[in-house]
Recover the amino acids of this structure.
């Protein structure tokens, strides 16, 4: 098969690779579309110790079953593969299973990803494509499940309702925009500020999201003001913005992984009873709920997705790297 | 009146001071006993910008009403004075009121503390001493309310019950011990490890608390193991121990304020969905519930409290500073 292979830091090569082998309990999927995630970019920058080249990246995948129980069916994949037997898996917290792996990773266990013509995946991770969700748009289900999980983590912990909460979204990438769309269109949140230093991306997001879009130095980002802050970037500078702008008793939801450690104002967190929750995945239920949300067009038009041919994937990665891209999400199609 | 006055970094002088004036809506309390808190030590070390010398410290106070509506009554004081009118105060979260002040602070507003013969306090902050609580022991209600609030914050957020949770308590000072006693005796928690580098203090705590008491390098402090960790110290090194030892999906309750900022493993917090909650105070309801707990002897003997004369207060502060003190709490009596 042809595949886009991550061969070295900032290097991707479209080349011939071996087809995945048929494994018991798994199916081979003919990939139709596969989205580029922030974590793929993290790998591309040579900063992800779970994704070591050579490797086929990509875990936001739709396609058609080529070999397996449901051959011929159009499907969307849940790329989070868990053991099914541990305490977490048995208690609907599969995303915390300590044997979990995601497609397009090779540490500790190899699982080739979706930037290829074919990919292998356990049958239990396969969902039939809902009838009103287009196969090219379907890979958005994966980051949308991440965003839904993050929003609902906040919803469970916040004392007032999300509807009446002042929200700050840091980052207008796919996760920031998807959190915003879920907050606005599913949770009826009326008071959203979204911040991003990239003007083009901010403008693109505001075509779809009912929010105030601002640069990081905006006067709308008032200190001690927001009931809930979503940091979808995870840089030192965004975490500092999060802790500055959160109100007493407020909640910070931290989804980004850009800088893994760094300082934090623990004094404010302590004196003002701030809750900080890290998150980056979703449960099986979140994934199923996301498919319903998308099938019912609950988050509106997905025209903010940009499509490129898989064989041109290297230039898409380069454009994202160069910050030359306004689209919050690029999906590669075979 | 005589008072123990904080006059400069690591200096306390027992000397004559002006009596507090009678103010409308307040009472003058003849102090019987007043406990030394970690935050008083923080001030003593010149590190608290809310407590600038000269100042009478102390906010864990019992006594008798000298002048006021309830003259002659034995009382215990809730030292947290709030506006009563803001959104927080009206929603049972008085501890987050942004006009809140505590006795024994002078920034932004001056409120002399309890290391004196007399102290003035709003009537609404006065509670009658419950009949089975001794007046010398009563100041422990304040740190006990801090611990109760912290434990119940954890209890509200944890998915399994506290009873079945593996708990790590960092620090065997008053807050660590009180959290432990509430967890063990009120919440029926069976699986507690308490860690402190101070052997004497650890041994003293273990006379009262059913837990494994260990030094920070112990093999019992297993990585990714504890469902909930209470960091009652708030040093960089204790926060790092907290994030290392917390299990996926677990909760860190951060009560200490020793080092106000510093690095943190946000990668683990994000990948493992860790919840970090800062806390250092309590609501009025917590304070009332604490008085019932103490009155009903629910946390057992309070013989771990050590008593000194107020006039000898300077040497008590010095001993705590020198780490020469095994008692988790020293209370000064007039």
């Amino acid at each position: 098969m042809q595949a886009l292979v991550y061969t070295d830091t900032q290097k991707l090569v479209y080349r011939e690779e071996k087809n995945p082998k048929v494994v018991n309990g798994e199916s081979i999927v003919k990939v139709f579309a596969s989205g580029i995630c922030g974590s793929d970019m993290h790998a591309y920058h040579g900063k992800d110790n779970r994704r070591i080249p050579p490797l086929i990246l990509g875990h936001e995948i739709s396609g058609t079953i080529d070999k397996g129980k449901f051959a011929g069916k159009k499907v969307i994949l849940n790329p989070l593969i868990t053991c099914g037997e541990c305490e977490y898996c048995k208690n609907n917290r599969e995303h915390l299973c300590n044997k979990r792996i995601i497609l397009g990773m090779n540490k500790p266990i190899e699982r080739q990803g979706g930037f290829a013509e074919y990919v292998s995946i356990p049958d239990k991770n396969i969902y039939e494509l809902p009838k009103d969700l287009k196969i090219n748009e379907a890979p958005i289900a994966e980051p949308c499940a991440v965003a839904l999980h993050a929003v609902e983590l906040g919803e469970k912990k916040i004392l007032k309702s999300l509807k009446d909460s002042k929200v700050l979204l840091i980052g207008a990438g796919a996760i920031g925009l998807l959190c915003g769309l879920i907050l606005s269109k599913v949770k009826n949140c009326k008071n959203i500020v979204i911040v991003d230093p990239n003007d083009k991306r901010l403008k693109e997001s505001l075509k779809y999201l009912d929010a105030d879009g601002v640069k990081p130095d905006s006067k709308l980002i008032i200190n001690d003001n927001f009931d809930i802050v979503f940091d979808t970037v995870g840089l030192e500078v965004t975490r500092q913005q999060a802790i500055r702008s959160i109100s007493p008793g407020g909640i910070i939801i931290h989804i980004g992984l850009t800088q893994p450690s760094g300082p934090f104002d623990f004094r404010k967190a302590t004196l003002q009873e701030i809750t900080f929750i890290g998150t980056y995945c979703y449960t099986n239920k979140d994934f199923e709920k996301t498919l319903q949300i998308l099938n019912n067009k609950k988050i509106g038009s997905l025209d903010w997705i940009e499509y490129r041919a898989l064989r041109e994937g290297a230039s898409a990665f380069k454009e994202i790297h160069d910050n030359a891209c306004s689209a919050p999400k690029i999906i590669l199609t075979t």
Notes: Chain A has a mean pLDDT of 96.
